[in-house]
Amino acid sequence: MRTALMLGRRGQGRAWPNPAVGCVIVRAGRVVGRGWTAPGGRPHAEARALAQAGTAARGATAYVTLEPCAHHGQTPPCAEALIKAGIARVVAPFDDNDPRVSGRGFSMLRAAGIAVDTGVMADEAGRDLGGFLCRNEQGRPEITLKLATSFDGRIATAGGQSRWITGEAARRAVHGLRARHDAVMVGAGTARADDPSLTVRGMGAAQQPVRVVVSRHLGIPLMSQLARSARETPVWLCHGTDADPALIEAWEGVGARLLPCAVTERQLDIGSVAQALGAAGLTRVFCEGGGALAASLLGAGLVDRLVGFTAGLAIGAEGLPGIGALGVARLDEAPRFALERVAPVGGDAMHVWRRV
Length: 356
Known about the structure:
Number of strands: 16
Number of helices: 12
Cofactor: Zn(2+)
CATH class of the largest domain: Alpha Beta
Number of domains: 2
GO molecular function: 5-amino-6-(5-phosphoribosylamino)uracil reductase activity; diaminohydroxyphosphoribosylaminopyrimidine deaminase activity; NADP binding; zinc ion binding
CATH superfamily of the largest domain: Dihydrofolate Reductase, subunit A
Order of helices and strands: HEEHEHEHEHHEEHEHEHEHEHEHEEEE
Organism: Roseovarius spongiae
Strand content: 15-25%
Binding site for substrate: 162, 178, 198, 201, 288
């Protein structure tokens, strides 16, 4: 199962809206087939592993990181394929929470006389497939907030200088994280100030994440890097229903996808943004700021994971904070996260936290 989970991670950022599943087929103590969800979500992991195993699948055990699907979509059900291949036993962590599957895959297998064991490495699988599970349960993608800050939590000097607070190794690690997510998201302020490309570079990435900008009034220059490259690499703009129709038309003209979202008195409803991204098929979103967007997500309880890169320098109180105002008056009101791991990355420290 550990190998199947490792294989499944190869599909992260490429398989959406489907889950990034891994599958290993073992017969007589020997691996005869391996597979993971292909880019775009098809073929599924089980189909690829069965194709590799061929006739050796008969009487074998299939280790799969999610319940095999049981519904007819663009491809036949994986449960049906496992039955036809003569698999004798299936091992999986838990049921698929997609209502089209949810227990039906396991029922099909058991009805065909196949032994089914569940509960194996369920915690690890839950972390890997958290985005898919979250979208099914809550209608939104899993959101990771990344912050690269000084030791005192600043992302820029008072004059706006931010390149580079962290070192080259940390920046490379960020590109690796981008590659494992369906989308990279920033706020309009970051898009204006940094004119970022938000692409994966230096990793040999064959598929780029969607670039998402949250901007109520579409206040992003039409000569920005994002606008100039929108036809080559997807750009999605989450905007208010009160945005200027002329700007909507202009952005559509350069190839961007426009996602209208509800507004509150002063800003976009960040919950509406998350739901719009989920409805569009995204399961894993990597947010890179800025401070106002980070505060909105944290305040709404929409951050599932924090990834921090902390550098060994201090900028001081006049610097720009990594997170905007949250209105927290008491410590028990503050969003709380549990530490998963800490690791040195070059001359910086990376720390990963999960929502309690």
